């Protein structure tokens, strides 16, 4: 069975003081839950918090990662951060291709392809995000869009053991609308099929595919109960320790069942 990964994407939230308090609370709550040692827990704070967070999580099982990276190793790219700089912080994961990067910052698949290779080439794990807009879904184009986001970015040269995919329908992010468990499972199945044609079935079966888009304690268990949903990428709910740990608890319960 694939080990679940529950990842929190903090986006542009949290000061240092808030972050320390949140981590302390999450850690305490995790200590009181059964089965959480069978779940990978990751938080992805803004760049400025990575160094202090390395310290704050040092004695806890919580891993930390970055929300984005620049594809070049160094150079005149004002405002950007390279993967080597991220490695200096001790972080283990980097999110690439989040729909906010696609929609608000105009980044495209060719860039994500380079970012994915920069991250995995440096030995870190990439969480590569895909997902259709509402217009894509209503136009019956979900499969086509997601297949393209996969095929144009993920090739057989990407080390599969450093790859996590996140399916995040754009219409479900921060909107309170969640894909139904069946809708999510259907797309996760397509993504797994795409991975099987890029790599092979055994490799595809090892890669974790997370669901993201308004994941909350109330819908986590049902989503995580689907055969191809191996975890969650959580936005809003990860900023509230009670909610984030309840989602982790749902993943732990699945492992214990
Ligand atoms: P949300 O965000 O949980 O607030 O919908 C998910 C994400 O953007 O990763």
Low-confidence stretches: none
Strand order of the largest sheet: 1-2-3-4-5-6-7-8
Largest sheet: 8 strands, parallel, barrel
Output the radius of gyration: 17 Å
Q: What percent of residues are in strands? A: 5-15%
Looking at the structure, the CATH topology is: TIM Barrel
The overall pLDDT average reads 96
CATH architecture identity: Alpha-Beta Barrel
Keywords:
alpha/beta, 8 strands, about 260 residues, TIM Barrel, eight-stranded parallel β-barrel, single chain, binds 2-phosphoglycolic acid
Please give a structural write-up.
With 257 residues, the chain is an alpha/beta fold. It has a single domain (5-256), classed as Alpha-Beta Barrel (TIM Barrel), CATH 3.20.20.70. It is 44% helix and 15% strand. The protein has helices at residues 16-31, 50-56, 83-89, 99-104, 109-121, 134-138, 142-151, 181-198, 201-206, 217-224, 241-256; strands spanning 5-9, 40-44, 63-66, 93-96, 125-130, 163-167, 208-212, 231-234. Strands 1-2-3-4-5-6-7-8 form an eight-stranded parallel beta barrel, surrounded by six helices. Helix 1 (16-31) runs parallel beside helix 11 (241-256), helix 7 (142-151) runs parallel beside helix 8 and helix 10 (217-224) runs parallel beside helix 11 (241-256). It is globular, with a radius of gyration of 17 Å. The relative contact order is 0.16. The mean pLDDT is 96. 2-phosphoglycolic acid (PGA) binds at residues 9, 168, 173-174, 212-215, 233-237.
